[in-house]
Amino acid sequence: MVITKNRLVLGATAVTLSTIAVTSLGIHSQGQALFKESPKELVDEVWQIIQRQYVDGTFNKVDWQAVRQQYLRKSYSNPQEAYKSIREMLKKLDDPYTRFMDPEEFKNMQVDTSGELTGIGITISQDEKTKQLVVIAPIEDTPAFKAGVLAKDVIVQINGKSTKGMDTNQAVSLIRGEAGTSVNLLIQRSSERKKFSIKRAKIEIHPVRYSQQKTPIGNVGYIRLNQFSANAGKEMQSAIKNLETKQVTGYILDLRGNPGGLLFSSVDIARMWLNNGTIVSTKDRQGEQERETANGKALTNKALVILVDKGSASASEILSGALQDNKRALLVGTQTFGKGLVQSVRPLEDGSGVAVTIAKYFTPNGRDINKHGIVPDVKVDLTDAQRKELWLNEREKLGTLQDPQFAKGVEILGKQIAGRGVPRAEK
User: Fold this and answer.
1) Model-level pTM greater than 0.70?
2) Major place of localization (predicted)?
3) For residue 258, is pLDDT > 70?
4) Which of 76, 195, 410, 425 could be disulfide-bonded to 81 (CB atoms 3.0-4.6 Å)?
């Protein structure tokens, strides 16, 4: 599957961790006409989409033909009954990223990548092993971020309701609400539980922030990328061009806490740093592999260090993995989240939609990072207490020499510059 910009409309929502391609194909006109008479057509259409596209040809060892017979034997008197059956059907795949969205949920997903949303500003996923709802990362400067929610927090309750057995769709319905209203979360963090009462707000996301930092190795361009939204590439381009006019000695790209987003955005941004080489490859269930490559239009060839942590996921891992494997950058920080699956989102006739895992993605060197993440070249750990202090209470230190991971990044960047920009992993 060649993934191109015009086919990638939606990306990771504020409540799910996904690298998503949206196909332009809807239900055929005949199916649309039949659906108006019977919601059963919607059930079968979703089954057909899984049958054609799902990444695992064994359907995770589920007899998918038997599933079709089971759910087509039922009678459906309204769309809600069809929605319930579709959710049950998809749950059999035991894949938290393959999911059905009713019209309201699908609309929310579309809003999430437009750069503006209403909520508390967290990205969550369902852990594939424990089935717990896990915070991938709070979005910077949002209510959840300011309240102190951290990456890897487990959401135990939402407004007093246990999240056991709850999927991400159900969770977003409870977490979201009108601006000004509050949601109560019970969080499990390591061995302790914490209660949060967070006021919802209208959130406008600016994915890129940048500055020029004075360091012992000269002026360094610091770029923080919060999310791979639709306008991230444009903002990244402006940041690099502006910093180039200031003749910075090198760059530190901060992907810490970046939960991912649009696949085409990660590819576009990789091309701004990389002149040649593979960026990412995808492999579907037939084993067919397609590649996205650099196009010779890098905006700078200056030395680059990327900061990553356990909240760096999905598209963040595509970008950092591409630049690491091509020896264009060194990674500093901690191991990333580990999300190496691609979802395709299909809009359905009644305004609902279905996200289907259609492929795995691999770094240029063929690394499958799903569930494993990317290991940085230079490891610099921060405790939860240190991270909370830095990111919440002393934000002015973030991306300065008082930020331990940034400071190490500057040190490594200096070694690259001394070596004429050729990255060398620290031994």
Assistant:
1) yes
2) other
3) yes
4) 76
